[in-house]
Every structure is written in C-alpha cells, then in structure tokens.
UniProtKB/TrEMBL annotation:
Belongs to the P2X receptor family. The chain crosses the membrane at residues 333-358. It catalyses: Ca(2+)(in) = Ca(2+)(out); Na(+)(in) = Na(+)(out). It comes from Mola mola (Ocean sunfish). GO terms for molecular function: ATP binding; extracellularly ATP-gated monoatomic cation channel activity; purinergic nucleotide receptor activity. This is P2X purinoceptor. ATP binds at residues 68-70, 183, 290-292, 310.
Length: 377
C-alpha cells in the first residue's frame, strides 16, 4: 500500500514534455514559414494597427448640436429673412430652408369647390369618396357642382367642406435661388463618457472675427463651423436649381474617431455630405420635400380665418457618429494570446500535408505517434 502511494506521489511530481519530430523538407518548411508570416502579418497589420485591438473602445458618444442659418433672399417680390424661410426656428439638429412658398390667403370655414376636376354627372352620387378626391383639402360633401364653362357640360367639380377657398397649385412660382449663398453655422459638442473626454467641432481659441470671416473647406479650412449652402450641395453632387423647385433632404454627418493614446488635440471631427432622398429623386410620387403650415387670425366679429402656406424646402439633417479608443491591458493580452495560438495553425496544416499527401507519410507517422499496448493483469 505504501509503495502504491509513493508511486502516485512520484508520478505527480514528474515533468512531461511533447515529443518533437524534425522534418528536413524544403517544401514543408517554406510552407510552414509562409503560413506563420501571414498569420503574424494579419494580427500585427490588421488586428493591432488598423483595428487597434489593444484598446478599449467607447461607442456611446453623447452629442449636442445647435444650428443657425443666415442670409437674405428674394421670393415673389418679397425680401425673405431667417424668420421667413427657416423652420423650425429653434436651431434644431433637423431644420428646413424654404425655397418656394405657395400662399393661400383668407381661408374661412365653409363649403366650396375642390381644385381637382371630376367627370360631371347629374347624379350627385358620382361625387362620392370613391370617385372624387380632394388631396386632404377638405371633406367631400357628395354634391357635384356644375362646370365653370357653361359650353362644356361634361367636366364638373366636387364640393368640399373645410377651409375655403381651396389651395391651388401654381406652376409659375419661381423658387428662391438666393439660398445658394446662405450660410449654416453648426456648433457641435461631444462627450465620450467612458473616458470623460469632451470636445467641440471648432477650436476654443477661434475668435468671433475668425468664425465670421471663414467658410468650411475640407482641405483649406476644415475647422470652420460656417457652411455655405451652395458648397454643401456641391459636395453631394447637386445644384440649387435642381432642388429648389420640389425640395430635397440633405444629410450632414459629423464623424468623431479619436485615438486617445495620442494628443487630445488630434481628436477632431470630419464632415461628409449626402443627399438622403436620392432613391426617390426620379419618382413621380413623393418627390422632393414639402410641408404645410398656417397662420391664424380673427375678424372684428370673432370669425377665425387663416393664411395657408405650402412650403417646398431643403431639409438638413445633422448626424453625429463616432467612437474613441484607449490602451487597455486586458484586450491587449487577449489578442496576444489569440495571435500566439493562431501561429500554431501552420503546424497543423503542415502535419496534414505530411500525414496524407507526401511520400514517406508512414515513416513520419511512425516517428510522430507511438502506440502503447496495455497488457491485461
């Protein structure tokens, strides 16, 4: 019994090592080194240098954006300032610059004809909802009104109840092309909460005079927060003449990619611009961008009336994305272990070739594997 215990103790404190077989083959040796170099190159070049896998990354960026538009233009013989063409006026992350306005004044609640024509018939049932539509301009009453031209007894209009007179389309309204020279001021502050790092999209030492006199350019003036509308459209490959009539949606993306192992001053924004509604630019339905709003008034006797505005506008969406990374021991060790383990894949590949495809495979197998037959007691 004592000898058995002593044998177990002796076996426990022995050292075992793997058996190495040296194969002197140029082809296998070169293949092994090539595979190892490819694996090392992948981890060094892609994983560590490009992807920065040695860092902890914070993708939960916190952002605040304030916008302000400036410029004066002419539309339908009127001078338009910021209060006339910017909506909403709070300097939000999404805002619109109106390029064309269709105004319907002095609308009162009542009944009137719709602006869409309909086949006239003596039976009022033909002016039901199934056959006559009013583009949400009012509720259809079911009454057919006689044609305006008494010589034409086939074309009539349906009666609607709502705000009258109904809105009419006007093809002769020219858009406000002065929008091209308007400027957009963008103030963006961000924070990476994991590292408690805050940054702004223009240097804090930049003076008021410098900001007022600059215009953003990706190479000549990349830190200027003033963007000329015409330049923004050019960066998206668009022209104001093509967008002002029906409107459009433009995206301004502010991207923050910060390597906090370097100087914090190198944590800077990069801007990109795109037309967001481009997939629908050639559609007949829902082309461009427009919306309606009304201004309400009351007569001396208390009757309410309004002025309806249909606005065609260029909508700007300011989007902020980004991440920050900083060296951390734990991800570094994890990726180093993965790299060293992956280098062993070259040995596995070479073993497969030696054991199955080369001459002398049986000899290599006999050297590599040693079979032990267990004797029965």
């Amino acid at each position: 019994m004592g000898s058995l215990v002593g044998g177990c103790v002796a076996d426990f404190f022995t050292y075992e090592t793997t058996k190495s077989v040296v194969v002197k083959s140029w082809s296998v040796g070169i293949l092994n080194r090539i595979v190892q170099m490819l694996i090392i190159t992948y981890f060094v070049g892609w994983v560590f240098i490009h992807e920065k896998a040695y860092q902890t990354t914070d993708t939960g960026i916190e952002s605040s954006v304030m916008t302000k538009v400036k410029g004066v233009g002419y539309h339908q013989g009127r001078v338009m300032d910021v209060a006339d063409y910017v909506f909403p006026s709070q300097g939000a992350v999404v805002f619109c610059i109106i390029t064309k306005l269709l105004v319907t004044e002095n609308q009162f609640q009542g009944r009137c004809k719709e602006v869409r024509t309909h086949i006239f018939h003596t039976f009022a049932a033909l002016c039901g909802p199934a056959l006559c539509w009013s583009a949400n301009l009012g509720a259809i009453t079911g009454v057919c009104l006689p044609p305006e031209d008494p010589t034409n007894n086939t074309i009539g209009q349906c009666e609607i109840e709502g705000w009258c007179p109904a809105e009419r389309e006007a093809a002769d309204i020219k858009p406000m092309l002065d929008v091209n020279n308007f400027t957009i001021f963008i103030k963006n502050s961000i924070r990476f909460p994991l590292f408690n790092v805050t940054r702004g999209n223009f240097p804090s030492k930049m003076t008021r005079e410098q900001i007022r006199s600059c215009n953003y350019h990706p190479e000549k003036n990349p830190f200027c927060p003033i963007f000329r509308v015409g330049d923004v459209l050019n960066y998206t490959g668009q022209k104001i003449e093509d967008l002002a009539v029906k409107g459009a949606e433009i995206g301004i993306n502010i991207e923050w990619k910060c390597n906090l192992d370097l100087s914090i001053e190198r944590c800077i924004p990069r801007y990109s611009f795109t037309r967001l509604d481009l997939p629908f630019s050639k559609n007949d339905v829902s082309k461009g961008y427009n919306f309606r709003f009304a201004k309400y008034f009351k007569t001396d006797n208390g009757t309410e009336y309004r002025t309806l505005h249909k606005a065609f506008a260029i909508r700007f969406d300011v989007m902020v994305t980004g991440n920050a990374g900083k060296f951390d021991t734990i991800p570094t060790l994890i990726n180093l272990v993965a790299a060293f383990t992956s280098v062993g894949l070259g040995t596995v590949l070479c073993d497969l070739i030696l054991l199955n495809f080369l001459k002398g495979a049986e000899q290599y197998k006999a050297k590599k594997f040693e079979e032990v037959i267990t004797l029965r007691e």
